[in-house]
């Protein structure tokens, strides 16, 4: 059974490892600008300290996580072996509960993620050449708005 729970600082290592594994598996073409130690510090000192991080646990194993705050979905990653079984959708639904608008960035070449967000009702706001992200990879800004909501 899938359960969701809010992450604690003790979860930083597992979250950082899943982040690295998911990115490497889903986007092998993506520049990896950080070491595993830098990833751990980032999740411990920045993400967990300033965002709401929710873990999806399935069979007592971390299956995915989402980090959100102030109308932004900053991270949503699902373990490669758990994709396609509702983990990402459960995390996305949890993130959408807190407001009427949600924004996120995805890489243009990450077609699976883009299809997932578009099926979930997100619309493309703009596409960039990637000069604004550290990976220097073209990306796309998405917006989801609850029916009847206006943009902030």
What features would you describe in this structure?
With 152 residues, the chain is an alpha+beta fold. It has a single domain, classed as 3-Layer(aba) Sandwich (Aminopeptidase), CATH 3.40.630.30. Helix content is 32%, strand content 31%. The protein has four helices and seven strands, in the order βααβββαβαββ. The strands form two sheets. Strands 1-2-3-4 form a four-stranded antiparallel β-sheet, with helices on both faces. Strands 5-7-6 form a three-stranded antiparallel β-sheet, with helices on one face. Helix 1 crosses helix 2. The longest helix has 15 residues. The protein is globular, with a radius of gyration of 15 Å. It starts with a strand and ends in a 7-residue tail after the last strand. 28% of the residues are buried. The mean pLDDT is 96.
Write a compact overview of the structure shown.
The protein has 152 residues and is α+β, with helices and mostly antiparallel strands. It has four helices and seven strands. The protein has helices at residues 12-26, 36-50, 87-96, 111-119, and strands spanning 2-6, 52-58, 61-69, 72-78, 101-107, 123-127, 139-145.
What is the count of helical runs?
4
- How does the overall form come out from the CA principal axes? globular
CATH class: Alpha Beta
Strand order of the largest sheet: 1-2-3-4
- The arrangement of helices and strands along the chain is EHHEEEHEHEE
- Tell me the CATH architecture: 3-Layer(aba) Sandwich
Q: How many domains would you count in the coordinates?
A: 1
Report the sheet with the most strands, covering strand number, pairing sense and barrel closure.
4 strands, antiparallel
Radius of gyration: 15 Å
CATH topology: Aminopeptidase
Could you report the average pLDDT, rounded to the nearest whole number? 96
Helix content: 25-40%
CATH superfamily: Gcn5-related N-acetyltransferase (GNAT)
Beta strand count: 7
Beta fraction of the residues?
25-35%
Structural class designation: alpha+beta
Uncertain runs: none
In angstroms, what separates the terminal alpha carbons?
36 Å
């Amino acid at each position: 059974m899938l359960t969701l729970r809010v992450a604690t600082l003790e979860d930083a290592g597992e979250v950082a490892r899943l982040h690295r594994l998911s990115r490497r598996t889903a986007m092998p073409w993506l520049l990896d600008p950080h070491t595993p130690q830098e990833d751990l510090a980032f999740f411990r000192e920045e993400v967990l300290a300033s965002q709401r991080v929710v873990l999806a646990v399935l069979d007592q194993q971390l299956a995915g996580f989402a980090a959100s705050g102030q109308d932004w979905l900053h991270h949503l990653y699902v373990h490669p072996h758990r994709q396609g079984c509702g983990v990402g959708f459960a995390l996305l639904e949890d993130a959408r509960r807190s407001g009427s608008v949600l924004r996120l960035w995805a890489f243009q070449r990450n077609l699976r993620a883009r299809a997932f967000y578009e099926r979930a009702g997100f619309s493309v706001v703009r596409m960039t050449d990637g000069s604004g992200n550290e990976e220097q990879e073209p990306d796309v800004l998405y917006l989801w708005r609850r029916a009847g909501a206006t943009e902030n």
